[in-house]
Amino acid sequence: MGKIVFRAGFFAVFAVFLVLTAAFFIRSPVLLVTDAPFEDLYGRGRSRVKRLELSLRLFRRLKTVEIAGDAGADLAAFAVEEALPSPYCVLFPYRYYQGARRYARRFPRIPLAVLGGRGRDGTDIPGFIPTDTEADFYRAGLCAAVLAPEGTVLVLGEPSPAERKFFLEGLRARGYEGTPQYAAGSEEITLRADCMVIAGPSSFLLTRFSRAPSVLFSWTDPGLIPRECQVIFDDSPWALAAEAVEMAVRGNFGPLPSKALVLKGRITEKGVLQSLKKAVHSIGP
Q: Is the pLDDT of residue 31 over 60?
């Protein structure tokens, strides 16, 4: 009797597995437009892991449409059309927003989103999803206060007045009482920093003027950045894809915060590690 029950249970589980597997492969995939320069910067190994994670989370395949780095709008739209006649949803990075416009005109019933990133105008761009930079700078302020509770905090880049306001609120929320310093580029730095928040062009990665712990806004593979970097804010299409698909399907668009990654292998103090993890998961002021 026991063997019969066991076999019946085994076959029932196996049947459910087969049904779920078939459903997974039958459902229309999500398409994500990308190109070789981005994939090389982000890390192809990371992309493969993210593709698997997102496919499981969405319970449908996520397929990439990789095009040449210098492809125009026509080619981007055509490549998506050729990849699949009726995808569940299509995600475009901002650099191919013109291709998204043309695709949307040809296939108005297919949900799509354009991941806009920081500081870009989404007027007349279908499915535009900007990065919630105010939320990002608030969390970056929390992180900076953890890394330099009484030291000098230096921001590389040119954040907007609103972003500076939220950054300061994050600092104050963690008890930091100093005044953060700002520099548009490394050539303007005139002081020693105890923590750097690097929110400018990727060329800042090449600077070697400080050994201070840093918070970085970047898509770059963590294996390619200096060890001083302890937190990364990633607003790449891979990072925001799951939420972007949900928005596109609902037709309700708005800003999304970056995914913040604490590089725990670079942090030796347990208290700091836990505080950073708490900071990056903060909802906001």
A: yes
